[in-house]
Amino acid sequence: MSVVRVLDANINRAAEGMRVLEDISRFVLENKELCITIKNCRHSLREQSLTIHSRNTHTDVGTSITAVQEYKRGSIHDIATAAGNRCAEALRVIEEFLKLRGTENKIESIRYKMYDISAEIIRRLGSTNKKQWKLCFVMTKDECLLPWQETLQQAIESGCDCVQLREKNKSTAEMIQHVFSVKKLVEAHHTPVIINDRVDVMLSTNASGVHLGENDMSVRDARKVIGSQYIIGATVHTAESVDKALESGADYVGAGSMFPSATKPNVPVAGFALLDSVQRCNHLAIGGITPKNVHELYNAGCRGIAVSSAIARSTTPGKIVENLLQPEAQLI
Question: Same domain for 171 and 295?
């Protein structure tokens, strides 16, 4: 009877963990494929235990034993991690105790499949620090008409809530030094600093995250390296690339080009149809955005923009930022 009770308790425990992961997949990630896979695993688990219903909570000494960690969940990541661990541990116990029956069971294959699913869910949840920004200043130091420190200071004080550093011609050592200088300047405003392309520089400076282009390290590989603490952005030009970026674990997408861009004149204009594809995720419209045309983006449902030249090449960058934000025209 004690073996049956062990099996019953752990089958319930594993199924509960699966249900939590299934609901995260359904309501948070909105991923039908993951939902179906987890549901199938849950049903396969129940098939191994049709005759086991022997748990007696009144006499179970374990019901009164708790740990402080059980009552602390700081994020959906924590919930998913706890559910995955709960499921894995319970499946291992089930697998071991079913060996006493001397019959073949499917628990090992279910356990390995749930390992992979749990890891996939954590990866797709992305960073624990992601958010929707209103205006990201994509800054290249030498493009600023004013000293870059003054340009950035005005931009931040006027409402810019993110800065991305794009420096194609600096050595690694120079880039690291520059990032530290930028972080010091914006730290009073708690402004996130995103590094363009360079995962190594981001990690060495503990910046907020990295933005990856189509020819950079893949989002999937970057997430393996940096974990869930840091933010990953991905450049997208088509609806298909949006799907790929999100499936790989991107926290936001830079969508464009919205208008002809002086910064990247060779990038085709994607047009406003691309905005429809990014409404379901954090996004920054980018490319040729100015105070004169930004209202077109807001009217089309855009929630965030990334701007380079219009801010950098102005002698009044703070005023440009104020005009770009146009609070009366924004949807957020």
Answer: yes
Rounded (10°) angle between helices 107-125 and 2-23: 30
What is each CA distance from 2 to 8, 94, 249, in whole angstroms?
Answer: 10, 13, 44
Res 49: pLDDT = 62
Q: Which CATH number belongs to the domain containing residue 199 in this structure?
A: 3.20.20.70
Please tell me whether residues 71 and 188 are part of one structural domain.
no
* Whether residue 143 sits in one domain with residue 112: no
Domain around 63: 2-125
Residues in the chain, overall count: 332
Contact, 256 vs 283, CB < 8 A?
no
Give DSSP secondary structure letters for 176-194. HHHHHHHHHHHGGGT--EE
pTM: predicted TM-score of the whole model, two decimal places? 0.85
> Bridge partners of 20?
none
In this structure, the number of other CB atoms found within 10 A of the CB of residue 141 comes to 20
Question: Is residue 130, in this structure, part of any structural domain at all?
Answer: no
* Ramachandran category for residue 227: left, alpha or beta (phi over 0 → left; psi -120 to 50 → alpha): left
Kindly state whether residues 268 and 152 are assigned to the same domain.
Answer: yes
The reply to whether 280 and 205 lie within a common domain is yes
Distance of alpha carbon 7 from alpha carbon 17, whole angstroms:
15
Mean pLDDT by 10 residues, the chain (332 residues): 87 96 95 96 82 55 54 89 97 93 86 96 93 97 98 97 96 98 97 97 98 95 94 96 94 95 79 92 96 94 96 97 79 47
Same domain, 19 and 154: no
Residues 109 and 146 in one domain: no
Maximum CA extent, the chain: 81
- Say which residues have a Cβ less than 8 Å from residue 298's Cβ, sequence separation at least 6: 326, 329, 330, 331
Owner of token pair 């609901």: 23
d(CA 143, CA 149): 12
Tell whether omega for the bond before 257 is within 30 degrees of 0, i.e. cis. Answer: yes
H or E segment to which residue 109 belongs: helix 107-125
